[in-house]
Amino acid sequence: MTSASTAAAPAGGKPRKGGVVTWACAPGFPPAVIFPFTPAERMGTRNILEFQALMYRTLYYFGSDGTPAVDYAQSIGEPPVWSEDGLTVTITVKPWKWSNGETVRADNVLFWVNLMKVKGARYGEYVPGYFPDNLTSYGKLAEDKVYFTFDKVYSKHWVLYNQLSTITPLPKAWDRTEAGPANASGDLADVEAVYEYLMAQQGDIVDEGNEHRTRWADSPIWSVVSGPWRLKSYTLEGVVTFVPNEHYSGPNKPYLDEFRQVPTFSDEEQYRMLQAGPHAENGIQVGYLPLSFATEPAVDPVVGGPNPLAGSYTMYPQTAFCIRYISLNYNNPTVVGKMFAQTYLRQALQSTLDQDTAVRDIYQGYAYRQNGPVPMYPRTDYVSPRQREGAWPLPFDPKRAKELLEANGWDTSRTPAVCVRPGTGPGEAGEGIPAGTELSILLRYVEGRPALTRLMRGFRDAAAEAGIELRLEEVYGSVLVAEDAPCKATEETPCLWEMCCWNGGWAYHHPTGEILFSTGAGGNFGFYTDPRADELIDRTVTSDDLDVLYEYQDYIAEQVPVIFTPNFPIRLFEVADDLRGFGPVNPYGMINPENWYYVEDEDR
C-alpha cells in the first residue's frame, strides 16, 4: 500500500481547548438515518461516514493515518486471534464506555450480529451466503470476548476488512421494545421486535422532512453513543450540531466545543460561502472546492492544483479507495430491464462515455479514468495489469458502440435505434426485446453539481451518435437515492427506475466484489446477477492470490454490470488556515473532527 497524499498543512502551535467549526456539506444529502443498521437505499458517505460514525464507532476503524489500513488504536476490538485450523477467530473487546456509563461488552457485538442474522436483508452491506451466514457458530466466551467459527477457511485479510468491519457494537440501552427491556443480544427470537422498535424510534427513512429528525438529539436511544461526539441538535432547516461525548474512551478526545454541519443546495452556493472567508458572518471553516470551480488544472489528482482560495483556506484532496459508476436497474419489469441484461448493450453504453475528455476538460485533471471494479487510487497492487494503463477493455468509441448494436439486431440509422431482429439467436437483440422496441433509456442524476451535469450531457450526446437515446433528468440527491433504490417489482413498488447516478459509487475496505456484484448483495443496487461473477467472487474471498483478484476484476470490466465513470476525490476539502489537525485525510471517506483544533492566540 502507499499513503494517500495530503496537503502541506499549517504546522505548529499549542492546541487550544474550545471553539466551533462549521462545515458546509455537499448538496442534496441531509443525514436521513441515525440507526447504524442502515438499509441499502440510505447507504452513503453523508449518512454513515460524516454522521453515524462520529457517534457510533465500528468494531474496527480504518484509514486514520491516510492509508487503506486498520487502526487498532481507534478500534473497539483488539487484533483478531485465529485458531490453528484457520476456522475460528476470537476478538477481545476493549472496555470502552458508553455515554450512559455502561461498559462496552461482548453482548454489544452479538446484538449487532444477531440483527444481521435475522434482518440482514435490511442492511446495506449484507451479502447472502457471507457474514453471518458463513458462520457455523458464534457466541460469547467471556464478558469481553467473542468468537466466530466459519464454514471454511477464508482469507484472514478479507475477514477482517470485509466481514468483521461490518460490525457496529450496539448498547444494552437499545436492546428493548415498546414493552421494555429485551434480549436480542442473546436470543434471536427477540430480534424482530427490537428491530421494529428501533426503526420506529428512527422514523421514516424515506420522508424528506426534518421534523422527525429534530427528535433524535433528545432520544434516550440515540443519545447513548460510543464515539467522540454526540448529537446536540438537528434543526428543521437541516443544521446538524455535535458536541463532545464526555465519556468517550478512545484516543484523540475532541478539542472543539461544537462541530456544526450546515446544508448547501448547489456547488455555486458552496463556493460563494467559501469566497466570503472563514471569519465572515456565518463563515465556514471547512467546505469543499467544487470541481467545476477549480481555476487551473491539477497535474496529479492526488495532490491537486493551485488553490483559488489560498490565503484563507488550505486544500486537502480526499482521494478515497472507491469506484464511481452509474447503476442499471436489472429488476425493471419493462423492456428496459431486458435490455440491461444484454452484455453487448452495456458495453455499447460504456463505450459512449468519454472518460478521458471529462478528466481533462470537465474535472481539470482532478479526476482519473476508472476501467473496472477496483480503485485506481490510492495506488495498490490490487489493480490488474490490463487495467493499470490505458482504457482497456472499453475505450470511448461511439462507432464501435454503433457496430455492437447493429450486430445484435438494432437499426441505428436513427436515434433512438429500433429493434429489427428480435430473438435469442446470434445477431438478434436478446430475450424479451420485441421488434419495434426503441433504444431509449431514462438517466436520472443528482442536481446541483455542474461538473456532473456536463458529464451526463456529453454521455447523452455521444450515446446518440450510436443510436442510444438517454433522457436526462436532474433530481435532488436524497430524493434520487430513495426513489431509485434496490427494489423488486410489485404492485406497491413498481421498480421502474432505469439508470441512476448519484455522483458517487462505493468505498471499499478490501476490493473484492461480494458487496456490489454478488447475486442478492445489499450494495448490488440494480440486482445484477451472473453465475460466473458469483464464482469468481467466491474465489477472491478465500485466497490472497492477486491473480485471482485480477481474473475477477477483468471479467467485471468486460461485463460492465454498471457504467464506470471518471473517479475523483470525494472532496477537495478547503480548511481554514487557522484550523489545525485536519490531515492526513482518511482514504475511506471518514472524517475526524475530534482531531481538529485552534491554537493559542500567541502561537498563531
TrEMBL record:
Q: Which domain of life is it from?
A: Bacteria
The subcellular location is: Cell envelope
Q: Which residues form the Solute-binding protein family domain?
A: 80-478
Recite the UniProt keywords alphabetically.
Signal, Transport
Listed GO CC annotations = cell envelope
| BP terms from Gene Ontology | peptide transport
What are the GO MF terms of this UniProt record? peptide transmembrane transporter activity
Pfam families, per database record: SBP_bac_5 (PF00496)
Family that this chain belongs to: Belongs to the bacterial solute-binding protein 5 family.
What name has this protein been given in UniProt?
Answer: Peptide/nickel transport system substrate-binding protein
